[in-house]
Amino acid sequence: MIEVRHLSRHYGALKAVQDVSFSIDTGEIVGLLGHNGAGKTTIMKMLTGYLEPSAGTIRIDGLDIAEQRREAQRRIGYLPENCPLYPEMTVLDSLDYQASLLGLAPDRRPAAIRRAVERTELGAKATAAIGTLSRGYRQRVGVAQAILHEPRILILDEPTNGLDPAQIQHMRALVRELAREATLIISTHILQEVEAVCGRVLIMRGGQLALDSRLDAIGRRPRLVVTLDRDPDEALPALSALDGIGSAVLLDQDGTRHRFALETDDAQSAAPGVARAVCERGWSLHGLETERQDLEALFGAVTLERMEATHG
Ligand SMILES: Nc1ncnc2c1ncn2[C@@H]1O[C@H](COP(=O)(O)OP(=O)(O)OP(=O)(O)O)[C@@H](O)[C@H]1O
């Protein structure tokens, strides 16, 4: 179980992650999706205890990562982006070295290494020098390193980055296999990646969480999209407290106008109540529509920010 509350990270004036909250249950496979620079790696580094948040809390199985970092880290396996490996080491040496860094007792190492090699199907390359391996095999070594201590939570940053189509297929099969025993968070900027392996998606946009949805809900349940000239701080609590509304998130902003998406079981029936509540507060209603949450809309949420970034 991972609980993230009001997590922020600033680099000087740059707000790389802003007030992000989510919970992940045991056994879930969650895709963290967003364009380059959206804040995915920053979140992953904070989840793994390698980067301190500027604000907010992270709990791993109830352990506060700021206070019980070592203990929390023992439950996590991490494949960093462009996983650094020593090219002159063999696969086995590399795994043995990582096992020692993880603090595995020497008598437990051979069994742990054997199991990691089997699960990542690295047997044929076990004695090969890492520098001679294809990128796909090097990624598998990175994954083998991450699972040596049999963590219950696995965090994979761009696991298919730079792989060819056959290697991507293999990595996806490996991810599904790993998910039988661990909770998985996979960062990617590829929508198809999420569709292929994840049950749930978190979309980051400009450092903020723009969408948190189960994939099987996408394309089925329409949402209500309301446009108001109110700040999210004021509008979100009011909107999410309305009868029949499960949650409210900010979609985007154009000047002072903000578009909010409201999750509801029945968007058509909830619409009049939303319109009434907005008018009762004396707010201007600039738009109210039902929106089917299909994959295109999901993708739009991501690409919009890319356009904003491109156009400054
Ligand atoms: N150490 C750092 N110092 C300053 N700025 C940083 C640092 N690390 C990341 N950033 C900036 O923070 C923002 C978020 O970066 P981050 O790497 O978390 O994004 P990302 O979603 O993982 O992107 P990518 O898909 O390119 O890996 C970017 O604007 C990035 O330039």
TrEMBL record:
Q: Which organism is it from?
A: Allochromatium humboldtianum
Give the PANTHER family listed for this entry. ABC TRANSPORTER, ATP-BINDING PROTEIN
Q: Which InterPro entries match?
A: AAA+_ATPase, ABC_transporter-like_ATP-bd, P-loop_NTPase
Q: Which SMART domains match?
A: AAA (SM00382)
UniProt keyword annotation of Isomerase present: no
Q: What is the protein name for this chain? A: ABC transporter ATP-binding protein
Which residue range or ranges hold the ABC transporter domain? Answer: 2-231
Extract the signal peptide range.
none
Keywords, A to Z? ATP-binding, Nucleotide-binding, Transport
Question: Does the keyword Plastid feature in the UniProt annotation?
Answer: no
Spell out the family assignment given in the record's similarity comment: Belongs to the ABC transporter superfamily.
Q: Which GO terms describe its molecular function?
A: ATP binding; ATP hydrolysis activity
Q: In this record, what's one Pfam family? A: ABC_tran
The record's listing under CDD domains reads: ABC_DR_subfamily_A
